[in-house]
Structures are given as C-alpha cells and as structure tokens.
Amino acid sequence: MFHLTLHLADDALILGHRNSEWTGHGPNLEQDIAISNIALDQIGQARNFYQYAAELYNANKDAYTNIISSPAFLQVIGSIDEDDLAYLRDAMEFRNHLLVELNKGDWAVTITRQFFMSLYQQLLYTDLQYSADKRLAAIAEKSLKEVNYHVRWSGEWVIRLGDGTEESHHRMETAIDQLWPYVGELFIPADFQLEAAASGLLKNPEYYREPWLEKTRAAFEQAGLMIPAPNWYQKGGKQGIHTEHLGYLLAEMQYLQRSHPGAQW
Amino acid sequence: MEKQATINLEQQFQDRVDQDIRIEPKDWMPDKYRQTLIRQISQHAHSEIVGMLPEGNWITRAPSLRRKATLIAKVQDEAGHGLYLYSAAETLGISRAEMIDQLHTGKAKYSSIFNYPTLTWADIGTIGWLVDGAAIMNQVPLCRTSYGPYARAMVRICKEESFHQRQGFEILLTLSRGSEAQKAMCQDAINRWWWPSIMMFGPADDASPHTAQSMKWKIKRFTNDELRQKFVDICADQVKILGMELPDPELKWNAERGHYDFGKINWEEFWQVISGNGPCNKERIAARVKAHEEGAWVREAATAFATKRAQKQSAAVA
Amino acid sequence: MKIVIQIQRYGDYGDREPVKAEGATQNQADWPLWEVFIRSKMGLDHKHVGSLHAADAQMAIENARDVYTRRQEGISIWVVESKYIHASNPDEAASFYDPANDKVYRHPTFYDLPDELKAM
C-alpha cells in the first residue's frame, strides 16, 4: 500500500514538474496558463498522495526502512512529511513510470504524453474511487474531476495538431514514435501492483490496456494519426530503474533541501 | 476636422475626465491620450510577461511542494495579468501581435526590475515583498484610472495580486527565523533588491516627462515621488518584523515630515538598465522571443484546424 | 509612433472594413479575439469579464475556464468572437438614454400608496 501510494504520488509529481517547465515559456499566453493549471492539478494530487504515504510510513516505520535508504532521508528526525518523500529520496527510490520523466520536448511531445497519461489516470482513478482503502478512494475521486478535464484538453490538442498543418502532423508523428516505447510500462504490473490487486485495492493494470488503446485509437482516428505497431517496451521505472533524465530532474528539484539539511522553507 | 470642433471635443473630453466619468473605447479621445495609454498599458503588460521569467527561474527548484505550487500559481497569475492588460490595450486599436512585436524588437520598454537576476531562493520572497509591494502601490490608484477597460483590468489584477505579496513576505519570514545561512540569504536578497525596487516608481517628479499630462488626464493619480515615499515608509517598518535591514545608511525617521528620509537613488543605473544594459536584458528578451518563435507552429496549427473545422461544419449544414 | 485606429474591436464597430493598424502582422499564428461572459452564481446574469485569444469556440471556452475562473469565479461561460459584437454609439447617448430620465412612472417608488398596504 505504501509502495502503491508512493508510486501514484511520484507519477503526479514528476509529470507536474515537467509541465511546470512550460510556465513562462508556453506557445502563447492562453496556453501557458492552461499547461500551468495542469501542472498545479498534478502537484496537488502528488501532495495528497505523499501526505497519505507519510502517514503510513510514520505509523509503521520499521516495516519500510528497507524501502527508502537514501542517507538524506534517514537523517530526518521524528516523523517524516510530504517534502521528505519528494525531496530526500534518491532516484532509485522513485516509483514513477518512465514516461513521465522524459524531457518535456516540444508542444507535441508534451501534449501527447499528457494525453497518454491522463487517459491512463482516468481509467485508474475511476476504479480507485471504489478502492477498499477509503483514503485512496477519496483522493482518486477528487483527482478524477481534474483528470477528466486533462483528457478533454489534451485530447483536443492531439486532434488539433494531428489535423492542423503538415508540420504539426509531422511533429505529432515524431512525438508518438518517441513516446510509444514507454507506453507499455503503464500496463505491466509491478510487484506492488500485483499485491494491491490481490488485496482488492486496485485492479491489475493489464486490465486497462484495451480500454486505453480503444480511446487512444478513437482520438488518433480523428487526428489522422496512426497507432504504432506493438514494439519492445521500455520498463523499470516502477522498480526504480530509471532513464538518465530523472537524475537531472531530481538534482535540480531537490538541491535546496539537500544543501540545507533540516531547514524549514 | 475643423479646429474649433476639435477644441470642443477636447474640452468635452477633459470635462468628462474631471467629473470622473470613465472614457470608453468608442468615445472620442485625443490622439495623445490614446498613445499615452497604449504606451503605458502595453509596457505594463510586457512587465507582467517578462516578470514571469525571473520568478519562473525558481519553479523547478522551489524547496517544498507547497512553495512550488504557490510559485506556479503566482507566475501563472502574471500571465493572466499580462493577458488582461494586452486585452485592455487592444481596445485602443493595437493588436497583441503588434505589441509583442514591439517588445521583441526592443521598441517597447518594460519595468527595469525584471532585468535583475534571481540568484537565490530568498530572491523569490524578496520579489514578492518588495517588487510586488511596489507594483501594488502603483497599481491600486490605477483601478480608478480614467480609461474604463484599463481600470477594469486593474481591479481584477489588484484583487489577484493580494496573495502575491503575502506569499513573498511569508517566504522571507520563514528564512528570517531559520538557520544562519537562511538569514544571510534573506539579508543578501534584500540588499540586492531594495534599490531597484524603489526605482520602480520611475524617475523623480522633476525628471519625469509624462507625469504632468498623465495626472491631468487622470491616467496617473499620484506622482512618482509621492508613491515612492509611501512605499519607503511602509517597508522601513515591515523590515523590522523580519529582523533585517534595508541597505540604506541614510534611512531615518523624520518626525517633522512624518516620513522616512532616505538616501540618493542611483539614477544612472536606472537609465542604464532601462536602455538595455541591465544584467539580464538580453536574456529576458531572448527567452520571450524563443518561446514565441517555438510556439508559432502550434498557433498556426490551431488556426489551420479551426478553419478546417469551420469548413466541415458549413459543408454539413449546406 | 503613428497610431492608426483599428475599428475591429469590442465596443468599437461599424460597418466599414476594419482599418489595419500599421505594422500589424495578422497571420496564421495570431488567433482571433473573443469576449468572455461568466455567470458567477446560480441565478445571476452572465457578465462580461474580459477577452482572450483562441483559434476556435471550443478553445475559447477552455481558455476562458483557465484564464477567468481560476478562483472559482464562475459556473457558466459564454464566449463570442469580438467581431460579432455590435455596440451602441456613444455620440448618440443623448437620444438613446436621456428620454428614460422623465419616465419615473416605470419605478415602483413613483406610486403613492398608504403605509397600511402590506405585501406589495
């Protein structure tokens, strides 16, 4: 459960962080504001999950000591909080999908990734609302409203760019080719997801593969885009084996917390 | 138009302004009034947009999730404020594209404060406290400015700005109660931002070319020096709560005037920064140009798609 | 700087062709302007809140949601492309609005009724 909560939090934080890199640099003012809103939603979701994860951790520290062993984290005295989880874990202790940590790329990459992730989160949170765990269910219910909007917004952009100009169509194809190898990981269960499925917290993610593909196909059809042939999928994020990108992201994100141990901000 | 008629129109216009009746887009207005407004509103809009950059610089490094979220929300608000202001200026017959072009080609100016770098996290707090504080002081009177769309935009902006200064001060307060290193970080940021902040009120009244006419037209409602004095008075008290100091040895309460006296402003630096020689002028504009150019294909694609969709819809109707 | 008055704008229309502002770069990358109206609470009228740029109506609604309802300002959004708004002419203000000044019988306070009369 702790693992699962952390995984959900990490996905939301890392994607929110990537999207926030657009703030101040969007293709125009209106879209700058739109992508920042999505970043804010995701960071808000991450905070809810991290706060819950911190409670779980504090309630049963001994059970989790082998899960997080970064020296900075172990130096925390007393109870841990959301920021300790976000800022003091090392890259190998992050449980997010590889897809969310990739660089933000151009607007086509950002949109395509957002669409892929939002569709996945929509399916996931819809079920999680009815989870046996009431806290996760409550967070999912609140987050789902946001995610539904993200699906709508990113889906429209997928169609708009796919069916826009020659250049935008080409950029979408490139983005899809780049991201597709990372999509499979969404549906390959990690151990903690199998455990969660066994204890009735959440379905095995394999279950979402078909509905996800169906919705993606529908949007791509309108956009005049093709779903790539099944390919070898990159995976490992949920086991802590990441791409090179996450290390840089964390080095930047965590540096203040780490250079001033124990400080309040 | 005959001269007499113009004079009458000008008189009517001034009468309306004197009676505090708002001027609206379709109303007759002197050309100079229109130009002054376009200049002022677009500069104000540019300042919001360029102002996103120094603060946005710390979004990915904000030291807690709460700070990260509030900083994104704040920088996002600035985008919103720029948008409201560009819209207000557009009612005067200039397009946003033109204004942005003027910014990118260096024809339009923006607040020189944003040409200073944000070097530490404390700079984010200091910008909130001092820079937003100075901005609010300039902006509140603008809610009653004579041009309707500008005044309405400013009402919305001022409402939203109120959290900005508070979040800044809260950052500094936390630092001022933190470790020695954090305290030093806080004082250092105040030292670097204080003088540029009080320059934000613009040149002294005797050297400010636009103030007199702008006062008469009620575009501006207080002089630069009046607002600056008010700001210094407030900050001199607020800094005590932080247990920090303002970097001005001449800062002293003057009981006779009922105000703080303060030292001489380095106007040479002000003019240099305004005219392009600040530490970050080139980087700021380059960042804006880059975002705009890299966004061009996105904007074009959306236009092309909208056209196609409209054609499909009208074909379906026919 | 020479300013040419462009008459393509909310509150500033006529039947003439819009005058291009000098140096205007109206191209594919510039989206048209939309006016935004928001209804704040159940029962109140939509109110003009400002404008924004968008490529089409759907995007205009979404942009309005992101730009103008960040602080729970609204529960309903209308957008209309600015060029479709027709406005009254301020030069005709006298003939438009002054005639209403002496029609006080349109207001309930015009009628003199005894205080004993309740619930009216």
Structure summarized in a few sentences:
The complex is a heterotrimer of chains A (265), B (318) and C (120). Chain A has 265 residues and is an all-alpha fold.
**Major sheet size, sense and barrel closure of chain A:** none
Structural class of chain A: mainly alpha
Globally, the shape of chain A reads globular
How far apart, in Å, are the first and last alpha carbons of chain A?
29 Å
Please state the CA-atom Rg of chain A, rounded to the nearest Å: 18 Å
CATH class term of chain A: Mainly Alpha
What oligomeric arrangement do these chains adopt?
Answer: heterotrimer
Low-confidence stretches of chain A: none
* CATH topology-level fold name of chain A: Ferritin
What's the N-to-C terminus distance of chain C? 62 Å
Please compute the radius of gyration of chain C using only Cα atoms: 21 Å
| Overall average residue pLDDT of chain C | 76
How many β-strand runs of chain C? 3
The average pLDDT score of chain A comes to 96
| Estimated share of beta-strand residues of chain C | 15-25%
Largest sheet of chain C: 3 strands, antiparallel
Largest inter-chain interface? A-B, 49 and 48 residues
Secondary structural class of chain C: alpha+beta
What CATH architecture of chain A would you give? Up-down Bundle
Keywords (chain B): Oxidoreductase
Protein name (chain B): 1,2-phenylacetyl-CoA epoxidase subunit A
EC number (chain B): 1.14.13.149
GO molecular function (chain B): phenylacetyl-CoA 1,2-epoxidase activity
What does this molecule look like?
The complex is a heterotrimer of chains A (about 260), B (about 325) and C (about 120). By secondary structure, chain A is mostly helical. Helix content of chain A is about 65%, strand content about 0%. Chain A has a single domain (about 1-260), classed as Ferritin. Chain B is about 70% helix and about 0% strand. Chain B is built from eleven helices and two strands. Chain B has a two-stranded antiparallel sheet. The radius of gyration of chain B is 22 Å and the shape is globular. The termini of chain B are far apart. In chain C, a hairpin with a 6-residue loop joins β1 and β2 (about 45-55). With about 120 residues, chain C is an alpha+beta fold. Chain C has a three-stranded antiparallel sheet with strand order 2-1-3, covered by helices on one side. Chain C has helices at about 55-70, 95, and strands at about 35-40, 45-55, 75-80. The chains are: A mainly alpha (about 260), B mainly alpha (about 325), C alpha+beta (about 120). The interface between A and C is small, with 10 and 12 residues.
